[in-house]
Amino acid sequence: MDLDEKIRFPIGHFEPRFEFTDEDRKHILDQIPEIAKNLRLVTQDFNDEQLRTPYRTGGWTIIQIVHHLADNDMNAYIRFKRALTEEEPLASSYREDLWASLQEYKDLPMEDSIMLLEILHKRFLTLLRGIQPEQFRRKLRTEVLGSITLDVAIQRLVWHGQHHIAQIKSLKSVTKIGVLNQEEIYPHCPMEIRVVEVGGVSKPQLKDKLQQCSIRMNEYGIKLFDDEKFVISPTKRRLETVELAVRNLGFLDGATTLQLFQMADTLGLQLCPIDLSPYLRIQYLDQPETCTSSTEKGNQAPSGSLTIASEPLTEDDHFPKGFYLRNIEGELWLRGYIADDLHVWNPHDRFIFCRT
């Protein structure tokens, strides 16, 4: 799953279970009333401007998501009742993108849809808890999933609610931007801008240039550079980069890699091509020096390091995710690093992004 997919599907794609016990089913049903409860909790601290902010570039606003959840679950309720009373009916579909553009999605208070969900789910649960286990094996036909049982349909309902709540949570960490001065947030904050020339040489030639500049690499850096998926662009071009701290993206308490990259995208920044890293290392020879005895606090990256924001080559958490630059007691390093999806970067850690 690439970065855009992770932003769109923060809890992953829907993956149903087909072997189901009565206890499994009870666990799923117990999660239905939690949807409206968690939706109210996760949205309660947003101001009106934030409620009308898309959770990602090109995505829906929080208000649109909440109204969509109400519409979706009303449709799900009707589909479910049809499957209980008809033989494998074709579930009706609707243009959710066009529904989300209707005026009611802009004018109706968000609380109206949350209250509607609470009432709807109460009635839905009364229905679900009153039918026999074998009735959950009845089927309906859908355009997306094909023919599915009601056991799968109810899993999909719960996943769908949790999926959109997770999208809203992805914006939750930026609600603290308001307590920062705007001068501390990109593009108003102080920043270091560099123009980097990349491409135009082969991988062996680039490695020779690193050696000529006495650039050292750690084990992770060598593993990343030598991997066949690490490709050097044959086309020579110039890229403008900007150096920012995590807090300059609005994260006072730090952020995961996904949150950082998502907010950078919202602010008009781009991830760097991963092959920019060695070129920047060669061209940035006056990086301030740090010593090996420098101590970091908590989850802070190594002192004086600059992490290149780039798309990982693989989802394997044991494979280096990217490069960072460091000057350790006069020796220039191009180092690889390991970080899983749960790692929270320190507010003072510094990243390199590209911008147009």
TrEMBL record:
Pfam families: DinB_2. This is DinB superfamily protein. It comes from the Bacteria. Residues 37-168 form the DinB-like domain. InterPro entries: DinB-like, DinB/YfiT-like. It comes from Paenibacillus polysaccharolyticus.
